[in-house]
């Protein structure tokens, strides 16, 4: 549990200076004391023989020796070595130093952040160090705070997304552990001074400061570091509330918890709550679950801890638990087998790809804040004077935590470094601009140098002034004045007075007040701390080789009184009774092109269930003349809130897109309770998210003003309402229970019965047989399914939405009239779009959705499917299939997302969320479980699956779907290891209900309970089959589907087994509850408002986009594709002009159709070619049949045509 600084085992020149030589005596002594960890570098802040830190090989040699001695003396237990690799492997000489976290936040690009984490991890591991103290997940809400540069900015959601991505990157190497820091509330300094005491209510702690850590733990972060501050007077390092109740109980974190530097001792030396170090150690260990103390300069902690244990022997179990977590981490990282990891990575340190990645992050993070009269980008031949203390200083681009704690100033120590001056030389040559600087970082300049600078500025059309902060880290970076040094401001004023167009570059780790600079500069670029490649990126932006796309991740204040006001402040934070105006708002950032936003649209305006989802969509168009990247941001506003004064707005979603000039794209965001809910301010009782019934407003773009307390007229704002007053989850349960309590046994079993539509249709007239409906209603039948079409009739191929609605409307009216007012639940196989609803746009099958690898697009396909199905009056969708196809002979492969459980999990969850984004639609995930593991490829074959395979390969997609909120499940046709699923207590009770904790409706597949007799042959009669299934499983509804004998059989079972009544009541309750959840008691035929939306142009575009993204190019010899538009082409094959073959089964009817005429929106390959190149640009002929037969005459003609064309496209 003890961690020491590297300096403790190095030979000292004096008290503060160490050599590069190990003190063998000290190392061996500490090894005998079982020291568990070392950390840090001891290089110091001066160059040694032209060097500024250890390289990877030198670090490895040092750590190798520490490991050898330690393991020799302590019984073979490796130490774990930690480093502050803050922006790249920032203590490893030769590594590429990447931009700081504040830049990474400004990029709004989590994929690029992942890459930064990956490079950092690899280079740190190359040095033999496994433990990285990062990322910082604090949110900076006071721009004076010296650690702002280490954060992702001021926003909790942005930090959550970026932090999780970075952690995944860091831990993508098996022998590296991330250590997220600083848990919790550290950054909320009231004065701006580092380590100041923080006062914060639990609401703020849980809703603003905790979410990034929750996201980090969900991303797999292996360790966490506590922090330097006290919260509400209670030092975190001794806080049971924070370091037991919150982190261990509420967040469920069971990894290693380490202190920050000397923090246990600081209870005595800084916080002054303990009168001795002994008391500090005793208090912290007894009150918290800290696993390791970053002591860091002596081993006295061990003595103090042992003294505590002697006085409190009951604490031994607590210490053993901590030691276990430390040992477990070492095992997880493989240190017992390979104590010095990363040997294979040494040669990769500092490679060109890393430089390119760091350069790309710099490009995407630099923020253009002002560009008056489009002064930028500059022409390559422009007359330019470059000046400023940061213009030729890579160290000032890098800030602190660079080779040493406080960083370096200058260029010589940066192997990969490119200053702004060097960047300009690289881009336009050193004769294309004039460079001179006499300004110092503190703002001072001699009269002579100022005179020269004024003279040069007056001689050039443009003057680029690079200014900003000196290097710093942590407490030494405290400032008393938030403004830039006065001399820097006056320097800009003086040069601007010459008439030159001033372009100001800022290199700073926090937003410093600019005074008159915004009035005197034609352009302002905030580089923040882009580090080594920042000068190159800056030059590329200045001259337009790169279009800037960075956005401020933190508010840029204008006045000193407003430095601690983040954009998402509470509505009561006002300046002189009005909003506090800032220099630039969170999310600000200009581009060299223009982006136009359409009105934002919502797919619904009322949320009746807090667990529902809502989709907001906006179309973004690049109306400028060049390509550009834009970060689309969605904010949520709750104008009135009871639990706590509301914020002005909160970022909830963002997406960075790239558009060519003139290009448009739809950007959709799905919102849920995670977005509109807040955590109840309670700690130690589990995290509880609550949702208030209220009006909410969606706002797109950071500068959008919605005027929510007056009339909302801004088209980028959209209002919706959450009203769960009559349908809260507990209310559903209670109401369903009250309804079912009054049911007779006949009503119970009737609700559990589902019939196909054909049972109530007249075969001759094809009209609804109302007598049959009435008869079944008197039997309390709870559900119908399916369509009645099996062939074309009078040129139609299925019911359109209005026709379906008419039939279902009448079924509902008769049923509710006869059964006491209980609606039926109508279900259908909307497998690829609303494929039984004539006129709807048919989507690519699930196998295509899987091939797209685009869950956002899958969500959109599902959303359209749900809307069109609901337009037909149908609330229950039998999909998605979550089986994974592992035999390509299987006939249902096209209905799956493919063979991989993770892919099926991600896509299935997206599809479920899309299907249930409409309040009156329920997904029914199928077929639980193992159905697809056919050994022969024949459908419904018995499967043999060990539990390991079942749980690890076949179960995860269902788990993901249930976590996504799937309301219902369908079991499957198969037997597993000889046990039919439909009668398996193990599968349908133990696994589904107990292990997965599913409490929604469980439906059998078609006729499957009867199949215990008809197919599986494990029951001698259908009646025995019904009794067996109902007694052994928790099935809630039987898809009978063609008679009501099930009701009689179930009642007979109940008569013989009266103890089963409670089980049947539970099933009937679940059926009634879902009808309540879907609002069917109030609106039995939902979706009338969607009828006119069926088959709209946007749906067609979505289906087309899914087709585009899912089609797979498998071979392209000699780049034969793409074809020139004028190519000589012969098109042939039975599938070349047949939309039916593009759609296959489950298309209007079960087995689908062949042909084109039935597809209102259909485009065959032949038609597609005609649309694209005209029908005179290719020749079409086909005589081939789908079975492969072709007449000799047709074959001869096809051969002749093929020989006449350069290209033959054969669609088969």
Mean pLDDT level: 95
Query: How is the CATH topology of the largest domain named?
Result: TIM Barrel
Strand content: 5-15%
Count of beta strands: 42
Biggest sheet details: 8 strands, parallel
Task: Please work out how many helical segments DSSP would assign.
Answer: 38
Question: Which structural class should the secondary elements be placed in?
Answer: alpha/beta
Oligomer: single chain
Q: Which CATH class of the largest domain applies here? A: Alpha Beta
Helix coverage percent of residues?
A: 25-40%
Backbone shape:
globular
Residue runs with pLDDT of under 50 for 5 or more positions? none
GO molecular function: beta-glucosidase activity
Family: Belongs to the glycosyl hydrolase 3 family.
Keywords: Glycosidase, Hydrolase, Signal
Pfam families: Fn3-like (PF14310), Glyco_hydro_3 (PF00933), Glyco_hydro_3_C (PF01915)
Task: Tell me the layout of helices and strands.
Elements: E1 2-5, E2 10-12, E3 18-22, H1 24-32, E4 37-39, H2 56-73, E5 80-83, H3 101-107, H4 110-126, E6 131-132, H5 156-170, E7 177-183, H6 202-209, H7 211-218, E8 223-226, E9 230-231, E10 234-235, H8 240-250, E11 256-258, H9 266-269, H10 277-287, E12 293-294, H11 300-311, H12 316-332, H13 352-365, E13 367-371, E14 384-387, H14 394-398, H15 420-428, E15 433-435, H16 447-458, E16 462-468, H17 486-496, E17 501-507, H18 517-520, E18 523-526, H19 534-542, E19 595-597, E20 601-602, E21 606-607, E22 614-622, E23 628-637, E24 650-659, E25 664-671, H20 673-676, E26 678-679, E27 689-690, E28 694-700, E29 717-722, H21 729-741, H22 745-751, E30 753-756, H23 770-778, E31 783-785, H24 801-819, E32 825-828, H25 846-852, H26 855-871, E33 876-877, H27 901-915, E34 922-928, H28 947-954, H29 956-963, E35 968-971, E36 975-976, E37 979-980, H30 985-995, E38 1001-1003, H31 1011-1014, H32 1022-1032, E39 1038-1039, H33 1045-1056, H34 1061-1077, H35 1097-1110, E40 1129-1132, H36 1139-1143, H37 1165-1173, E41 1178-1180, H38 1192-1203, E42 1207-1210
Parallel strand pairs: 1-4, 1-12, 4-5, 5-6, 6-7, 7-8, 8-11, 14-15, 14-16, 16-17, 17-18, 21-29, 30-31, 30-39, 31-32, 32-33, 33-34, 34-35, 35-38, 40-41, 40-42
Antiparallel strand pairs: 2-3, 9-10, 13-18, 19-22, 20-22, 22-25, 23-24, 23-28, 26-27, 28-29, 36-37
Helix pairs in contact: 1-2, 3-13, 4-5, 4-13, 5-7, 10-11, 13-19, 15-19, 16-17, 21-34, 22-33, 22-34, 23-24, 25-35, 26-27, 26-35, 27-29, 32-33
């Amino acid at each position: 549990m003890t961690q020491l600084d590297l300096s403790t085992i190095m030979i000292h020149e004096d008290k503060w200076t160490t050599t590069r030589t190990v003190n063998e005596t000290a190392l061996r002594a500490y090894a005998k004391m079982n020291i568990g960890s070392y950390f840090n570098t001891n290089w110091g802040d001066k160059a040694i023989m032209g060097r500024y830190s250890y390289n990877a090989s030198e670090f490895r040699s040092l750590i190798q020796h520490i490991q050898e001695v330690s393991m020799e003396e302590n019984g073979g237990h490796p130490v774990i070595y930690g480093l502050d690799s803050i922006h790249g492997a920032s203590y490893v000489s030769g590594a590429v130093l990447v931009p700081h976290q504040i830049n990474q936040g400004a990029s709004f690009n989590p994929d690029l952040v992942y890459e930064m984490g990956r490079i950092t991890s690899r280079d740190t591991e190359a040095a033999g160090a496994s433990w990285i103290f990062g990322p910082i997940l604090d949110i900076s809400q006071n721009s004076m705070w010296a650690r702002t540069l280490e954060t992702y900015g001021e926003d909790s959601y942005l930090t959550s997304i970026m932090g999780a991505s970075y952690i995944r990157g860091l831990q993508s190497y098996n022998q590296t552990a991330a250590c997220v820091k600083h848990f919790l509330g550290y950054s909320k300094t009231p004065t701006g001074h580092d380590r100041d005491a923080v006062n914060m209510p639990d609401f703020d702690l849980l809703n603003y400061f905790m979410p990034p850590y929750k996201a980090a733990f969900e991303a797999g972060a292996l360790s966490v570091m506590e922090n330097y501050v006290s919260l509400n007077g209670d030092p975190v390092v001794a806080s049971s509330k924070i370091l037991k109740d919150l982190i261990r109980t509420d967040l469920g974190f069971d990894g290693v918890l380490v202190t920050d530097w000397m923090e246990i001792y600081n209870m005595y030396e800084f916080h002054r709550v303990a009168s001795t170090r002994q008391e500090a150690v005793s208090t912290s260990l007894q009150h918290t679950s800290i696993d390791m103390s970053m002591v860091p300069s002596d081993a006295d902690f061990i003595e103090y801890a042992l003294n505590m244990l002697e006085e409190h022997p009951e604490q031994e179990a607590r210490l053993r638990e901590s030691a276990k977590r430390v040992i477990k981490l070492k095992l997880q990282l493989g240190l017992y087998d390979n104590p010095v990891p990363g040997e294979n990575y040494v040669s990769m340190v500092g490679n060109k790809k890393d430089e390119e990645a760091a350069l790309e992050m710099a490009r995407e993070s630099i923020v253009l804040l002002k560009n008056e009269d489009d002064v930028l980008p500059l022409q390559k031949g422009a007359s330019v004077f470059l000046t400023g203390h940061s213009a030729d200083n890579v160290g000032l681009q890098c800030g602190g935590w660079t080779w040493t704690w406080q960083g370096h100033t200058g260029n010589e120590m940066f192997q990969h470094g490119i200053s702004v001056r060097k960047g300009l030389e690289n881009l336009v040559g050193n004769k294309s601009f004039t460079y001179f600087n006499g300004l110092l970082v503190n703002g001072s300049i001699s009269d002579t140098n100022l005179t020269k600078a004024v003279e040069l500025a007056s001689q050039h059309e443009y003057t680029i002034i690079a200014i900003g902060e000196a290097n710093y880290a942590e407490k030494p970076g405290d400032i008393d004045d938030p403004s830039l040094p006065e001399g820097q401001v006056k320097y800009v004023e003086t040069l601007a007075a010459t008439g030159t167009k001033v372009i100001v570059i800022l290199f700073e780790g926090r937003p410093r007040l600019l005074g008159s600079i915004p009035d005197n500069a034609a352009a302002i670029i905030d580089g923040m701390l882009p580090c080594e490649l920042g000068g190159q990126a800056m030059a590329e932006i200045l001259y337009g080789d790169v279009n800037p796309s960075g956005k401020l991740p933190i508010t840029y204040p204008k006045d000193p009184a407003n430095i601690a006001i983040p954009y998402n402040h509470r509505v009561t934070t006002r300046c002189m009774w009005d909003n506090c105006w800032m220099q630039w708002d969170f999310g600000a950032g200009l581009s060299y092109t223009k982006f136009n936003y359409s009105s934002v649209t919502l797919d619904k305006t009322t949320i009746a269930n807090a667990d529902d989802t809502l989709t907001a969509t906006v179309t973004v168009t690049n109306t400028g003349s060049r390509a550009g990247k834009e970060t689309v941001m969605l904010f949520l506003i709750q104008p009135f809130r009871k639990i706590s004064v509301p914020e002005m707005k909160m970022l909830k979603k963002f997406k960075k897109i790239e558009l060519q000039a003139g290009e448009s794209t739809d950007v959709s965001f799905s919102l849920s309770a995670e977005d509109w809910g807040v955590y109840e301010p309670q700690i130690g009782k589990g995290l509880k998210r609550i949702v208030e019934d209220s009006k909410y407003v969606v706002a797109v773009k950071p500068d959008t003003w919605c005027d929510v307390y007056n009339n909302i007229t801004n088209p980028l704002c959209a209002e919706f309402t959450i009203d769960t007053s009559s349908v809260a989850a507990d209310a559903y349960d209670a109401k369903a229970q009250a309804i079912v309590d009054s049911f007779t046994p006949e009503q119970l079993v009737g609700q559990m019965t589902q019939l196909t539509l054909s049972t109530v249709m007249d075969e001759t007239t094809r009209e609804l047989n109302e007598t049959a409906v009435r008869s079944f209603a008197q039997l309390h039948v709870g559900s119908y399914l399916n369509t009645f079409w099996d062939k074309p009739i009078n040129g139609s191929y299925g019911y359109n939405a209005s026709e379906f609605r008419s039939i279902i409307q009448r079924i509902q009216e008769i049923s509710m009239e006869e059964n006491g007012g209980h609606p039926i639940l109508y279900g259908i196989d909307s497998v690829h779009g609303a494929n039984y609803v004539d006129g709807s746009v048919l989507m690519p099958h699930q196998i295509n959705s899987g091939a797209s690898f685009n869950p956002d697009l899958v969500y959109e396909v599902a959303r359209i499917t749900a809307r069109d199905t609901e337009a037909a009056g149908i609330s229950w969708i039998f999909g998605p299939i979550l089986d994974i196809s592992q035999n390509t002979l299987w006939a249902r492969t096209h209905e799956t997302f493919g063979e991989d459980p993770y892919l099926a999990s991600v896509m299935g969850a997206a599809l479920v969320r899309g299907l249930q984004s409409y309040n009156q639609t329920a997904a029914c995930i199928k077929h639980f479980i193992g159905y697809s593991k056919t050994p022969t490829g024949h459908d419904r074959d018995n499967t043999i699956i060990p539990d390991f395979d079942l749980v690890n390969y076949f179960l995860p997609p269902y788990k993901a779907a249930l976590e996504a909120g799937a309301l219902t499940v369908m079991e499957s046709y198969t037997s597993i290891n000889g046990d039919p699923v439909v009668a398996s207590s193990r599968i349908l009770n133990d696994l589904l209900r107990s292990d997965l904790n599913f409490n929604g409706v469980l439906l059998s597949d078609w006729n499957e309970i009867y199949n215990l007799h008809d197919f599986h042959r494990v029951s001698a009669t259908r009646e025995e089959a019904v009794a067996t299934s109902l007694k052994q499983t928790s099935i809630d509804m039987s898809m009978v589907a063609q008679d009501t004998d099930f009701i009689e059989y179930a009642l007979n079972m109940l008569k013989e087994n009266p103890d089963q009544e409670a089980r049947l009541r539970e099933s009937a309750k679940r059926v009634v509850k879902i009808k309540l959840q879907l609002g069917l008691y109030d609106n039995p035929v939902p979706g009338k408002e969607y009828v006119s939306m069926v088959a709209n142009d946007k749906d067609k575009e979505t289906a087309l986009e899914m087709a585009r993204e899912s089609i797979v190019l498998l071979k392209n010899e000699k780049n034969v594709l793409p074809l020139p538009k004028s190519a000589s082409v012969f098109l042939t094959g039975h599938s070349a002009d047949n939309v039916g073959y593009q759609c296959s089964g489950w298309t209007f009817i079960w087995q689908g159709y062949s042909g084109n005429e039935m597809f209102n929106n259909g485009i065959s390959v032949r038609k597609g070619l005609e649309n694209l190149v005209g029908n005179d640009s290719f020749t079409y002929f086909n005589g081939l049949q789908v079975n492969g037969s072709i007449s000799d005459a047709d074959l001869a003609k096809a051969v002749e045509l093929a020989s006449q064309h350069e290209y033959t496209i054969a669609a088969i």
